[in-house]
Design goal:
The protein is an alpha+beta fold and about 100 residues long. The protein has one domain: YaeB-like fold (2-Layer Sandwich). It has three helices and five strands. A five-stranded mixed sheet has the order 1-5-4-3-2, with helices on both faces. Strand 2 and strand 3 form a beta hairpin. The longest helix is centred in the middle third of the chain and has 18 residues. The chain is globular, with a radius of gyration of 13 Å. The two termini are about 20 Å apart.
Length: about 100
C-alpha cells in the first residue's frame, strides 16, 4: 500500500499541533506521534475501519479527540483530513467533498 495525503492534511496537523503545543510543551509532539501511528496503521490495515461517508473511512486517534479520514482505492490510501471529533459532521462532509 502507498499512502498519499491531500495538501490540506499538513494544515490540519499544523493547526492541531500548534493548539496542543500552546497548552503544554511537548503535547503537540504527542499529537503528531499519534497521527503518524494512525497513518502507519492505514498502510498495514487500510480496510480495517468502516466507511462513514461516500467510501471515506475514519480512524480515531488514540489519546486525542481527532479522526483521520481516508479512502482506499486499489493499492493506494489517500488521507483527506484530520479533524477534531466535535466538528459538525455536515462541515466535515463538505470539507471532504472539496478536498
Amino acid at each position: 500500500m502507498r499512502v498519499f495525503y491531500a495538501p490540506e492534511v499538513a494544515d490540519d496537523l499544523k493547526l492541531a499541533y500548534d493548539w496542543y503545543e500552546s497548552r503544554s510543551y511537548g503535547l503537540g509532539e504527542d499529537f503528531l506521534r499519534m497521527a503518524y501511528t494512525a497513518f502507519s496503521e492505514l498502510n498495514e490495515f487500510p480496510r480495517k475501519y468502516e466507511e462513514v461517508y461516500n467510501s471515506v473511512r475514519r480512524i480515531l486517534l488514540r489519546r486525542f479527540p481527532y479522526s483521520v479520514y481516508y479512502r482506499v482505492e486499489h493499492a493506494d490510501v489517500t488521507v483527506y483530513g484530520v479533524f477534531h471529533s466535535s466538528r459538525d459532521p455536515k462541515l466535515i462532509k463538505q470539507l471532504l467533498d472539496i478536498r
